[in-house]
Amino acid sequence: YALTQPLSVSVALGQTARITCEGNNIGSKNVYWCRQRPGQAPVLFMYREINRPSGDPERFSGSKSGNTATLTITRAQAGDEADYYCHVWDSSTVVFGGGTKVTVL
Amino acid sequence: VQLVESGGGVVQPGRSLNLSCAASGFTFSRSGMHWVRQAPGKGLEWVAVISHDGNEKFYGDSVKGRITISRDNSKNTLFLEMNSLRSDDTAVYYCARDLWDPPDYIPESWGQGTLVTVSA
């Protein structure tokens, strides 16, 4: 099983960014997202597409349908610059997407 | 939750290396645990997971047969035994606590990682 993400996404400050994650019938799976800021360890911040651990801003939302899952970042801030990884549990393994680097202009 | 990895360093190809992860701040014996690695400048690659009691273990395809995950609940410690190391095993190795979202195993809280460099 493979997950495909765009290498990079650029978004203007205060605007909306969307990061896609494509995988065969991903709409039938639980999709998770983690974020890794430069020089730091990853942090899980979105699970089952819609839930967020307490304390995370509500500017982040997830959706999925068919072969695509999407992470949406609204009102983008400079602190949102990071690498974002989608991942799923499939056939007794964790499968990560290749990661998307988000740049806030 | 605090996870502190150790045991990384420079090792020659073909040799072995053992990593440890000391856990604190949560009930270790009730948590599944993962190892995930990241080659320099690359993305995340899942390595292995072990259930809370050690009875279930799953491995990524690229390491299967060369790597063994284990744990000592009496010492709140997770281990990763790596054999027949290759240059493409060079990476930062992270341990992570499992989210506990059955039936999925998903890394939730991550340590800061330990660097393994495989080089002659």
Give a written overview of the molecule.
The complex is a heterodimer of chains A (105) and B (120). By secondary structure, chain A is mostly beta strands. Chain A has no helices and nine strands. In chain A, strands 1, 3, 4, 7, 8 and 9 form a six-stranded mixed β-sheet that branches. A three-stranded antiparallel β-sheet of chain A has the order 2-6-5, with no helix packed on it. Chain A is globular. Helices cover 0% and strands 48% of the residues of chain A. The mean pLDDT of chain A is 92. Chain B is mostly beta strands. Chain B contains no helices and eleven strands. Chain B has strands at 2-6, 9-11, 17-24, 33-38, 44-50, 57-59, 67-72, 77-82, 91-98, 107-110, 114-118. In chain B, the strands form two sheets. In chain B, strands 2, 4, 5, 6, 9, 10 and 11 form a seven-stranded mixed β-sheet that branches. In chain B, strands 1-3-8-7 form a four-stranded antiparallel β-sheet, with no helix packed on it. In chain B, a hairpin with a 4-residue loop joins strand 7 and strand 8. The model of chain B has no long low-confidence stretch (mean pLDDT 96). The chains are: A mainly beta (105), B mainly beta (120). Chains A and B meet through strand 3, strand 4, strand 7 and strand 8 of A and strand 5 and strand 10 of B.
